């Protein structure tokens, strides 16, 4: 443990928070999605943002993290954590945090994430002179040196960031979904037709539909994809039971998972009762059949 008592208090405070790592990941995922503003813009990638928008990501994360952990504003820095002033620092790359002159000597909450790899890291370090490089910038901002990186007290290192589904699709599949010659409903149908056995977050549906009533499009997709045997399962009612019975990950609140099903015969592995019949996940060689009407 560090001999820096204020740093230890701040680190201990965060580590005592329930679901700390998950909440940091959710805050970063939410910040990315809000800056993408996919419902209005159709964007899903950091590469689609302007330089100004990329700069704003750090501000957005600072705001969302403060709200998530109910942090007070600091006396000198961004936050007050266990009575200690802590400055929020964001960088697209680990080690890239820029420390301004007013934060030298202060505690810094350093956050970074890689949307391509779906990972994020968060740590706290004392940004004193011994931990900083010599500045070559006009604004005198300084990066951590090797000693500073080693001195970092990691709260989360390479934690799992919620997947940016559209970013990770192959170009052909993504283009077939984001075909703006199609209606919003048809794009949502195509999303669940092409992307199966994977969790689809609400933000993905909003980006694909580009409509205020994106979630309603999911309900309509269930009806329109039934002739193809495609089921779209959510987090309510019988859906968690069905998802688990089919061997799927049960989608969390505000998410969905799709799969194609066929009637199960004999003692098929991972079959489940739906609407009075037994069903299983389809494989490629299975002939398409109409799916359950009510589930």
Characterization of the model:
The protein is α+β, with helices and mostly antiparallel strands and 295 residues long. The protein folds into 2 domains: 156 residues, ECO RV Endonuclease, Chain A (3-Layer(aba) Sandwich), CATH 3.40.600; 116 residues, Arc Repressor Mutant, subunit A. Helix content is 36%, strand content 21%. The chain is built from 11 helices and 11 strands. The protein has a 6-stranded mixed sheet with strand order 1-2-3-4-5-6. Strand 10 and strand 11 form a beta hairpin. The longest helix is centred in the N-terminal third of the chain and has 18 residues. The termini are far apart. The model has no long low-confidence stretch (mean pLDDT 94).
Q: Which ranges are low-confidence, i.e. pLDDT below 50, for 5 or more consecutive residues?
A: none
Order of the strands making up the biggest sheet: 1-2-3-4-5-6
Oligomer: single chain
Radius of gyration: 23 Å
CATH topology value of the largest domain: ECO RV Endonuclease, Chain A
What is the β-strand count?
A: 11
Question: Count of helical segments?
Answer: 11
CATH class of the largest domain: Alpha Beta
Major β-sheet, in short? 6 strands, mixed
Shape type = elongated
Query: CATH superfamily membership of the largest domain, which one?
Result: DNA mismatch repair MutH/Restriction endonuclease, type II
The chain-level structural class is alpha+beta
Distance between the termini: 54 Å
Strand content: 15-25%
Quote the average pLDDT. 94
Give the number of domains. Answer: 2
- Secondary-structure element order, as H and E? HHHHEEEEEHEHHHEHHEHEEE
**Fraction in helix:** 25-40%
- In CATH, the architecture of the largest domain is 3-Layer(aba) Sandwich
